[in-house]
Structures are given as structure tokens and as C-alpha cells.
């Protein structure tokens, strides 16, 4: 039940559902009187169902003193409710053959069950019990604290993860969106049962809950189960966070014992609710696949890195165009020279065949994601939270098709004009900071 890792950003949810191979029933969206929202995706060709409860409460909703508490709550969710202990929760799920999981992200915490479609109703009720009636037993809390501290230590030992934490801080400073999902050691060691209960009471209101279901289910039957399980949940206040201002800059951290340097180089791009499609395609043009300029030039031709990639990490509040790479420290200078050269070249022109490749790669990723009901639930829920509706595949397809090479070229120009954020962790040569600043144009 981990927090999301930034080292492999997922495809933005808006592009997980393009160009279907068969007509499907439209999603069914409903809002209860107390504000709980539901989205049901009827998928009659699947014998299973994925049921998830998303709570719009993640690390970006925490204060500095609370940082990491959303992840702590997620870990404790399956440790007991007022009517089930940990063993009973596991038994009730497994007797139905269900998989149970959860994750924490910056903008939400989610709880999942997946199993036979005929058990979708019981899944809704079990997840409602976990989300609404967690007992947070003191003994379990202390045991789970040790588990989380081990997870934190593992994360701290990962130089690439460290570079992403530095990168977010560079981008957004003290804004809560820059805080790591896992939190910090001091907070993890300090969180009390009372703090956890207070946080849940304040953040886990009905107006922050979305129930998503996908599979061979009767939508109206599912909605009746949601009404029964969540209808009397107190409404609470919506968890709102203002968008951050972008900053930029350079941060380095030397990590003893490492032989490699891990780099995250990025720029601001529009958020999910803004016109971000050109930047999304630009990231695929630049660094998706072995034939992309980033991989072909930096890895295959020059041998500067053993790992590199490019992504557009788009969320409701903000977006980031991210280039990540791992390399021997002596290759840092040449890496930045070549990456900046390639970025500037794309701000001059983008080849039509490169755009076609990028568009096809995004479409294929979306079609493959269609095969996984849990991903479809997450995509629909993210759409519902960001736009108040689930956008049609035709709309998503048209958004991709209307982006031409000139729009992508201009997107690269805007990246370079906004200024870079550069985070490096691992083994670093002396004096590399000033050379990196010069290579990427930082003051």
C-alpha cells in the first residue's frame, strides 16, 4: 500500500481512454445529498469489478507539521474498524477472492477492492466501513509506525527519489504541493492516535469522497449500495488548495556511497484543466521510446546515461515537463549540453513524423490502459474531480488530433522561457553547480 513514486510518472488520466475498439455504455455519474459522488463504468465484457473509494485528501492538503499523515492514515486503514479487526477485514475480503490495496498521492488517498462483479455491492460496504469507521488501534499504530519508518528509510536511500523531492521543492517552494507524500522522519515518529483521528475527522467528509466502480455491474444497483453505505456520512468541508507559483533553480545533494548522479530537469507546463495537450505531446516527442531524440542521442549514440526518460506530469493544480536521467558523474556536463541543445532544437522545429509517433504512442498507452478496470476507475474519478464530468473519448481524441507541429514547437519555446528547475542527487563532481547553472541558463 505504497505512496506513489515520482520516478515513473503515470500517463495523465485524461489520456487513458482514447479511441475505443467497441462502443460502450456511457459512465453513470450521481451525487448524493451529502456530496458523495459516484461514477460507474458498465463494462459487461469483464467478469470482474474494480471498486475504489477516493478521498480528496493527500499530502498537498497537509500542513508542514502534518506532512506524511495522509500516508499514515492509509497504512492504518486496514488495521481495524469499529466492527472488524485487522484479521476479519482480511478474511472478509479473501473469502470473496478479492484483492485489497490502497495508495496515497499528493491530491488524494484511495482504497481499492477488485474481484467478481457480483460482489461489487459488498466491496462498496467494506470500503465504506474502512474509510468511515477506522478505529486506529493504538498497538497497531505503533507497529505500523515502524513499517512506515522502514519505507521512509528505503526512500531516503534512493537517490533518484531524493532528486524528485528536491525538484518539487525547487518548483514550488513552501507550497504544500511540494511536500513529499511519505512525509519526514520527525513527523512519522511523532504522529499520535489523537492527531490521526483529528485529521480524518477534518478531512474525510462526504464532499471529499468519490466512489468509482468499473465492471460487469448494474449501475443503478451500485448506486443503491453507495446510498446505503455513504448516505448518512457527514458532509464536511471540501478540501481546497490554491495553485502554486512556479519558482525554479538548482539544488544538489551529495549522497555518500553512490557511484552515479541522478538528475531531474524540468519546466512548468499547464495543469490538467488548462491547455496542456501540446506539452503532453512534446514530452512524448522528446523522450518516449528508444527512437526519441533524448534516448537516441543521449543514450544510444553518446552513451552518456544508462537510464533516461521524459514525461508530462499533469495534475489539477499544476504541470511539470520532466527529464530524468542517471549517469556517471563525469558525464554531467556533456549531458546538460546535449539536452539543452535538443530542447532548443525542438523550439525551432518539430518534425511531422515525430509528432505522429508521439500521438500514436499516447493512443496505444491509452488503449492498453482500457484493458485494466482499476485504471479506468482512476481516470474517471480524476476527470470528475477536475472537470465535474467524465469526458468522452471523442473529446480526448479530438484534443490530440488538433495539436499540430507548430503548437508543439511553441510549447518547447514556452518551456525554455519559463526557466528550469534542476535537481541532482548522488555522487557529484566538485564545482559542478556553477557549470550546470551555465549549461541550463540559470543565474
What does this structure look like?
By secondary structure, this protein is an alpha+beta fold. It has two domains: 13-230, Cytochrome Bc1 Complex, Chain A, domain 1 (2-Layer Sandwich); 249-440, Metalloenzyme, LuxS/M16 peptidase-like (Cytochrome Bc1 Complex, Chain A, domain 1, 2-Layer Sandwich), CATH 3.30.830. 44% of the residues lie in helices and 17% in strands. The protein is built from 16 helices and eleven strands. The strands form two sheets. A six-stranded mixed β-sheet has the order 1-2-6-3-5-4, sandwiched between helices. Strands 7-11-8-10-9 form a five-stranded mixed β-sheet. Helix 9 (277-287) packs across helix 12, helix 10 (293-301) packs antiparallel against helix 11 (332-348) and helix 11 packs across helix 15. The longest helix has 19 residues, at 138-156. The two termini are 41 Å apart.
Q: Considering the protein shown, what is the CATH homologous superfamily of the largest domain?
A: Metalloenzyme, LuxS/M16 peptidase-like
Helix content: 40-55%
Q: Assign the CATH topology of the largest domain.
A: Cytochrome Bc1 Complex, Chain A, domain 1
Instruction: Estimate the strand proportion.
Output: 15-25%
Pfam families: Peptidase_M16, Peptidase_M16_C
GO biological process, one term: proteolysis
Domain Peptidase M16 N-terminal: 47-183
Protein name: Mitochondrial processing peptidase-like protein
Give the secondary structure arrangement, pairings included:
Layout: E1 28-31, E2 37-42, E3 48-55, H1 69-76, H2 86-94, E4 99-104, E5 109-116, H3 120-132, H4 138-156, H5 159-172, H6 185-190, H7 193-203, E6 209-215, H8 219-230, E7 249-254, E8 261-269, H9 277-287, H10 293-301, E9 307-314, E10 319-327, H11 332-348, H12 352-370, H13 373-387, H14 393-401, H15 405-418, E11 421-426, H16 432-440
Parallel strand pairs: 2-6, 7-11
Antiparallel strand pairs: 1-2, 3-5, 3-6, 4-5, 8-10, 8-11, 9-10
Amino acid at each position: 500500500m505504497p505512496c506513489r513514486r515520482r520516478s515513473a510518472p503515470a500517463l495523465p488520466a485524461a489520456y487513458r481512454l482514447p479511441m475505443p475498439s467497441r462502443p460502450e455504455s456511457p459512465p453513470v455519474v450521481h451525487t448524493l445529498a451529502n456530496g458523495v459522488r459516484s461514477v460507474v463504468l458498465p463494462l459487461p465484457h469483464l467478469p470482474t469489478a474494480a471498486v475504489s473509494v477516493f478521498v480528496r485528501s493527500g499530502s498537498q492538503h497537509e500542513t508542514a507539521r502534518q506532512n506524511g499523515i495522509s500516508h499514515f492514515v492509509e497504512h492504518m486503514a486496514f488495521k481495524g474498524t469499529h466492527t472488524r479487526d485487522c484479521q476479519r477485514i482480511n478474511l472478509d475480503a479473501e473469502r470473496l477472492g478479492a484483492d485489497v490495496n490502497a495508495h496515497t498521492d499528493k491530491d488524494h488517498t484511495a482504497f481499492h477492492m477488485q474481484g467478481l462483479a457480483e460482489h461489487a455491492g459488498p466491496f462498496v460496504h467494506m470500503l465504506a466501513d474502512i474509510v468511515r469507521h477506522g478505529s486506529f488501534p493504538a498497538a497497531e499504530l505503533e507497529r505500523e509506525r515502524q513499517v512506515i519508518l522502514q519505507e521512509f528509510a528505503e526512500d531516503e536511500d534512493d537517490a533518484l527519489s531524493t532528486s524528485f523531492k528536491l525538484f518539487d521543492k525547487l518548483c514550488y517552494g513552501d507550497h504544500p504541493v511540494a511536500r513529499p507524500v511519505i512525509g519526514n522522519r520527525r513527523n512519522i515518529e511523532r504522529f499520535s492516535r489523537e492527531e490521526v483521528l483529528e485529521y480524518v475527522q477534518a478531512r474525510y467528509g462526504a464532499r471529499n469522497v468519490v466512489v468509482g466502480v468499473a465492471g460487469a455491474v448494474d449501475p443503478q444497483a451500485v448506486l443503491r449500495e453507495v446510498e446505503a453505505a455513504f448516505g448518512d456520512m457527514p458532509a464536511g468541508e471540501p478540501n481546497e488548495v490554491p495553485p502554486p507559483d512556479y519558482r525554479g533553480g538548482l539544488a544538489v545533494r551529495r549522497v555518500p556511497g553512490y557511484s552515479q548522479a541522478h538528475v531531474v530537469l524540468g519546466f512548468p507546463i499547464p495543469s490538467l484543466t488548462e491547455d496542456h495537450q501540446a506539452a503532453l505531446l512534446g514530452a512524448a516527442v522528446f523522450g518516449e521510446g528508444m527512437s526519441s531524440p533524448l534516448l537516441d542521442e543521449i543514450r544510444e549514440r553518446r552513451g552518456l546515461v544508462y537510464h533516461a526518460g521524459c514525461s508530462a506530469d499533469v495534475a489539477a493544480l499544476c504541470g511539470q515537463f520532466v527529464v530524468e536521467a542517471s549517469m556517471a558523474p563525469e558525464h554531467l556536463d556533456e549531458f546538460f549540453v546535449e539536452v539543452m541543445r535538443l530542447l532548443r532544437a525542438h523550439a525551432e522545429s518539430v518534425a511531422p513524423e515525430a509528432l505522429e509517433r508521439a500521438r500514436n504512442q499516447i493512443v496505444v498507452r491509452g488503449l492498453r490502459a482500457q484493458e485494466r478496470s482499476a485504471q479506468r476507475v482512476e481516470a474517471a474519478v480524476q476527470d470528475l474531480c477536475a472537470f465535474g464530468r467524465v469526458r468522452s473519448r471523442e473529446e480526448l481524441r479530438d484534443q490530440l488530433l488538433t495539436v499540430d507541429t507548430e503548437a508543439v514547437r511553441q510549447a518547447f519555446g514556452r518551456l525554455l522561457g519559463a526557466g528550469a528547475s534542476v535537481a541532482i542527487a548522488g555522487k557529484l563532481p566538485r564545482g559542478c553547480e556553477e557549470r550546470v547553472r551555465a549549461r541550463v541558463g540559470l543565474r
